[in-house]
Design a protein that fits this description.
By secondary structure, the protein is an alpha/beta fold. The protein is built from five helices and five strands. The chain has a five-stranded parallel β-sheet, sandwiched between helices. Helix 4 links the parallel strand 4 and strand 5. Helix 2 packs parallel to helix 3. It is globular. The mean pLDDT is about 95.
Length: about 120
């Protein structure tokens, strides 16, 4: 059974690119367009891994991560943050409960390496 990855990203093109790429790598993928939709999706069916952006409408990634860490069924799900903001934002993501943070643009082969490490 393939590992399930939830992608939470408000940029339609990037969300679709990541989804297609990860499906081609053999992962089951669920996509959400913002933190609020991502949170509901993840709480309904906890995945093996979450990949999320930080700056999104309705609920940002930091708030979503903090909320995920409150629930027993999602408290240990690895969260990989992809952000365009360098510096302090990655540290804030880790403080909020993310497992790892990296910056956009990310090389797809590097992304697969991070995913494999987290799973």
């Amino acid at each position: 059974m393939p590992a399930t990855v939830v992608i939470v990203e408000d940029n339609d093109d990037l969300r679709e690119l990541l989804a297609v790429f990860l499906k081609m790598q053999g992962y089951a993928v669920i996509a959400a367009e913002d933190g609020e939709a991502g949170l509901q999706t993840i709480l309904r069916q906890p995945p093996d891994l979450v990949i999320t952006d930080i700056e999104m409408p309705k609920m940002d990634g930091l708030s979503m991560i903090r909320e995920l860490r409150r629930w027993p069924q999602t408290s240990r799900v690895p969260v990989l943050v992809l952000t365009a903001y360098c510096g302090r934002v990655g540290d804030e993501a880790i403080e909020a409960g993310a497992t790892r943070a990296t910056y956009k643009p990310v090389q797809l082969d590097a992304l697969i390496g991070m995913i494999e490490q987290l799973l």
